[in-house]
Design goal:
The protein is an all-alpha fold. The chain is built from 5 helices and no strands. The mean pLDDT is 95.
Length: 69
């Protein structure tokens, strides 16, 4: 199931603020698969707060993905 989600745009996660979406895209993170390859530390370096990182990880897990350990 997760294969079909890996190529979907990170824009699918409407709860992520646009400035952070833009920062991810500027660093060539454009798909959910690319986002899932990031660690919590990586996301913290993009300026995400702890609760935002948790939300992203949960949403990815619901799609059969998840952040890299």
């Amino acid at each position: 199931m997760e294969e079909k989600y890996k190529k979907q745009s990170i824009d699918r996660f409407e709860f992520i603020k646009q400035d952070k979406i833009d920062a991810l895209k500027d660093d060539n993170v454009k798909t959910l698969g690319q986002l899932a390859s990031k660690t919590r530390t990586d996301l913290k370096n993009y300026g995400f707060e702890h609760f935002e990182i948790n939300k992203i990880d949960i949403e990815l897990q619901l799609l059969g993905l998840g952040l890299k350990n």
